[in-house]
UniProtKB/TrEMBL annotation:
GO terms for biological process: lipid metabolic process. The keyword Cell division does not apply. The chain crosses the membrane at residues 113-133, 139-160, 228-248, 268-293. Coiled coil: none annotated. It comes from Cladosporium halotolerans. InterPro entries: FA_desaturase_dom. Keywords: Membrane, Transmembrane, Transmembrane helix. The keyword Transmembrane helix applies. This is Fatty acid desaturase domain-containing protein. Residues 27-48 are annotated as: Disordered. Residues 147-356 form the Fatty acid desaturase domain.
Amino acid sequence: MASTIHPYLTEPDIIVLRNLFNDVSRADDQKKTGESKTDPKSDKTLGEDIDHLKTDRGALDRLKALNDPENSQFQPTVLVTWDEKDIHPIINEYLIRPYAKVASRIVRHPADVVFLTHVLLYTFVNLPSAIYLFYNFSYLHGIIHTAFTFWCAGSFTLLMHNHIHNNGILAREWAIFDFCFPYVLEPLMGHTWDSYYYHHVKHHHVEGNGPNDLSSTLRYQRDDIWHFLHYVGRFLFLIWLDLPLYFVRKGNYKLALQSGGSEYAAYAFLYYMTFHVNARASTSVLIIPFMLLRLGLMIGNWGQHALVDELEPDSDYRSSITLVDVPSNRFCFNDGYHTGHHLNPRRHWRDQPVHFIESKAAYRDGRALVFHNIDYLMMTFKLMQKDYMYLANCLVPMGDQIGMSQRELADMLRTKTRRFTEEEIEAKFKKPVSAAERKKAGVQKPLVDEKKTDVVTECRNRK
């Protein structure tokens, strides 16, 4: 494992990594000496000035202080590219802080100023640029517009990720704008209206990469390029049919109609703008972003769920991964903490590092996989190369993984990409108990809480 920490990580990611590296150092020393390392200051690996942050208590105190609006250490997220310490003091004093003070009253959570920053960016940059392309198209402008949109696609998608999971991102006084802006911006950023909500919230999080998940990786050999291309191709060309049919099979005809209607309406809009308004502008503004985003979504989802435990594939700890890295967390609002997101989809994105430190024992017991210096796109790319030594070098070992050689870690990771047969899927994914069966058995409450809290999930995984 490479124990270097990228200097461009967010402060919470740096705290998490220092904490994990300290765990590895202690465990290694304990195995060598047979004694527990009780004094964290005896570890000189990362420097004495941050020793207090390497302990769980010190890490949690700092992380919680950063998130608490009542604490003097609280820092709202205003920009993704620069942190407050990176901004010139004069700009910070007379521009960033006054803006953050006003914006914190517009967003739902005081830490989420960055969401308003991005909504304003897309509204006053992408939207006028798109309108002008339809009015006066030029190839240079079209290329620049498409490149900028592609650069922003990840941040916008994860902004919408927070929007759809929490029914908005702005304060109640701004509810109308909060409701309307996605319908204006989604087509410009490669999304179709509401499809992300129906597929991700009403389908993916219900199925959790299980056998009925249309984006499940279980039936694929997850380091095989042909399996990957089949996976991507099916989503690109058939999701317009597969998702409504999924809801039909579930007996939810309302969602089937809504999901199909929103998707088909978006296709009709793309068709009209391309063939009846301006084909060249539509290609730059709508078609290319649409194709690139959908490709990116499936590459990312493959990376998130490619490493699935062969023994307990239904465990949230063992069917997804955690990344402590630059792109997924700095630019995409802690999307790297994917295991934590599946444990509780409504957890605030700034609380993900806090949850991780608080739940390290559950992650260790669940034999979760944690990586650094790699994002989901590179994860997928390295799997296609079958470069497990590279992945092993990015793995941050926890629990029983500590002390394993790079080769042993690589061999362990290789076992997590094997496709499941239908017989294995049937055996390992138990049929859920229906409401009628619970009532017949005299059980009044659901056996698993609908919010899928961490404690319930942990107990389920330990059965």
